[in-house]
Amino acid sequence: MSTERELRQLYQDVHFFAAPLSETLISVWEEDSAGVYAEVERGFIERYTADYVRVRNVETGNRKRRKTAIL
Questions:
Q1: Which of 7, 27, 46, 71 sits at a 20 to 30 Å CA gap from 37?
Q2: pLDDT digits (tens, 9 = 90+) for 9-57
Q3: Could you tell me the pLDDT band of residue 71, with boundaries at 50, 70 and 90?
Q4: What is the pTM of this model?
Q5: DSSP codes, the chain
Q6: What residues contact residue 44 under an 8 Å CB cut-off, 6+ apart?
Q7: At 9, phi and psi to the nearest 5?
């Protein structure tokens, strides 16, 4: 049994719809001023609209709205 995760980028509405239904753990990545991408959050999608994605942090339970990021 492999412990490697299958990595996918969420970019279509159907991906954002399916992720919370399947309780998929997601990572949120943002680009810093040097152009380097870093993981800024890991959690579960609680709400998705055309304007934002609300993510519940897996460790703290805090909720944040994300407008622009790589999920």
A1: 46
A2: 887 888 888 888 989 999 988 888 999 999 888 999 998 887 888 899 9
A3: low
A4: 0.72
A5: ---PPPP----SHHHHHHHHHTT--EEEEEE-TTS-EEEEEEEEEEEE-SS-EEEEETTT--EEEESS-B-
A6: 19, 20, 23, 24, 25, 26, 55, 56, 58
A7: -100, 130
Q: How many Å separate Cα 16 from the centre of its chain?
A: 9
Q: Are 10 and 71 in contact (CB under 8 A)?
A: yes
Rounded Cα distance between 4 and 33, Å, is 30
Half-sphere exposure of 66 (CA within 13 A, CB side): 26
- Measured in degrees and rounded to the nearest 5, phi and psi for residue 16 equal -70, -25
What tokens does 2 get? 């492999």
